Amino acid sequence: MEIINAFALIINYIIIPGLTYGCQLALGALGVTIIYTVLRFSNFAHGELMSFGAMTSILITWIISYFDLSIYPLPTVILALPISILITISYCLLIDKYCFKYHREKNSKNVISLIVSIGVMFFTSGLIRVLIGPNDRTINDGERFIISARKFKEITGLTEGISLKLSQGITIIVSIIAVVLLFWFLNKTKTGKSMRAYSDNKDLALLSGIKTENVIFYTWLITGTLACIAGTLYGLDKSYKPFTYLQLVLPIFAAAIVGGIGNPIGAIIGGFVISFSELLITFSYNKFLSYLIPINFLPEGSLQLLSTDYKIAISFIILVLVLILKPTGIYKGKLL
Amino acid sequence: MKTDFFSEKKYINAYLVCAFLFLLVGLFQSWNVAFSILNLCLISAIMSIGINIQWGNSGIVNFGVMGFAAIGGLCGVLISMPPTLEVWKDGTAVILIILFSFLISGILVKKFLKKFIYNKYLKILLSIIIILFSLYLIKSIFIPSINFIENTNSAKTGYIGGLNLPIILSWPIAGLFCGVIAFLIGKIALGLRSDYLAIATLGISEIIIYIIKNEEWLARGVKNVNGLPRPVPYEIDLQKNEFIQTLSNTLNLSVIELSSLIVKGLYSILFILVLLIIFFLLQKAIKSPWGRMMRAVRDNETSAEAMGINVKKRHLQVFIIGSAIIGISGAMLTTLDGQFTPSSYQPLRYTFLIWIMVIIGGSGNNHGAIIGGFAIWFFWIQAEPIGIFLIELITIFLSDQNEIKLYLLNHAAYMRLLLMGLVLILALRFFPKGIIEEEKRL
Fold it and tell me: Which among B210, B355, B418 has CB closest to A126?
């Protein structure tokens, strides 16, 4: 019984939040990685694109609830998601047309495109604040829990409860669907194959009749979709606040680089590496151990590797360590 | 000679425009506002010179501006504040000794591992054991003395305090200290190329700021250090001065306003002096063979290396110089504010603001960096009035009570982000060389 309790504790405080946050990071990192492999620059604006997606979802949710449509117990945002994905994609295509296309055609250094993406980041964050304001907004209007900690205790009779929020369940399921669709697209369809060919060897792809404009169109299509889904899920899980998306940029880069930038599977693995190491390093193991070993043997003080203040800093530390020690990442990605 | 004359005239015009803008602010808003904008403009000009020497002259992408500025600010605190004596007697000595011995033993252990242990896995195993052991040491010795420091008089001090020296001294010391940190960072990170280096330096500066925020024994963390000593007299002392009082009568200004004007003016003079010194030293360096070598490295690394230039060493050198300059400006910033607030260093905002200054001003040209620093900071402060003006202009056909217009006017404060992004995108597209382009040299 004690051992089951210890596992319940770990599932509740590490595995479920880790999976949720990992999914959100992985979706973000996929967007960054795809832009990098095809367009060859690090897109600093990706966090703000996610924020833009979440914002459009909220605005459309407001319109939908004005007509009294709802799919209770699921949150209304799910209904709004397809439309906001379309809007985010069009925004991405507009940005590409007016900001990145010129530098791509001029063959500027990729640092220049990176700096342009910083300009886009500033512009988008300003636009979001002008449109919706900087305040905190909760968008979860559905049922709160799939299973609450108290109910779980009643059913199983354990002293430790496991709670699974609806938003966490939705995040995990939607991410799995998105990733499966993405991999099907990249590996099985002709357009996906041409995208991979283009990212492998641009000149050869052009010679074999692949149209650049098409490849770039689909790249932004995928990026916009992923950004909108990731942003909306993050906002659904934690409440929407424009400022937090700025803080997400570096963890997302960390995830993409840890997995090996340019490699979609790497991006997913990287997302989970970052989210789980954040939780595992700042988790206090006192209660966990108290189930496993007799109380007399328990060491005094909190058993934490680092205090919770450093939670976000962990992703930066991993990022810097990976860059210095193994810049290709786990899955041997491309070098920037 | 003719082109030289022409380009010189362009600098002068740009400087004149800047002066004219300040005159406008002084006449239409107030002289106090004009001087506080000028002071921050001077500081941002120094920061953008620091970035310019790295990016414009050598092509190194350093996104760690805020980290170095924060270290500079920390130097300001540690040099100028009075020491917390109770703490020094018991706790700090222990901490400093431990820190020092950690550093020494770390270096020794690394040397030892490198020399005597050849097995890769054994090396990793040994390093893990050493890390765990030092974690144990930290737990048992470090944390009690940290708690002791943070708990002594925690409302007022609760940190180790400084050296009680004049704060101006902290400027060169901040430069030196940032140079050392930049050496360490550069040693490990400069092997990375452009994009990775950018992300790595950004990550490192986030880590630095996190450490300063959370280690309260060092500089009170998010509790901020207030009341730093000043290099210039206090307003209250000036107001008692008889000469100032008669001057205020003849100038028809209130004594309070005049005294704060004088204080800000004195700051400006100090900052202008520092700016001029750094500027002339760098101009000399750029015109020397060293500067030519740096540009050769920037323009074509491979051929520079083929000519026998040690590219890695040059990059490290210029990384240290630029970061030291940013550190100096960071110390100046805390001196001007009179307080050290770690949470106000937001790498993802202000780093890029400095970068925008360099790119708009004209990368590769120090005059350009200064002009860019002035123009962008001015624009950043004045973007709200400009935004309101633009909204008024767009919605001129709507009535004053129109909801859309009121909503937009309420959100005008965020126009600055939007406009800044727009300026950067447009500048890179339509005039990538900036306001003042790099001098053409043979």
Answer: B418
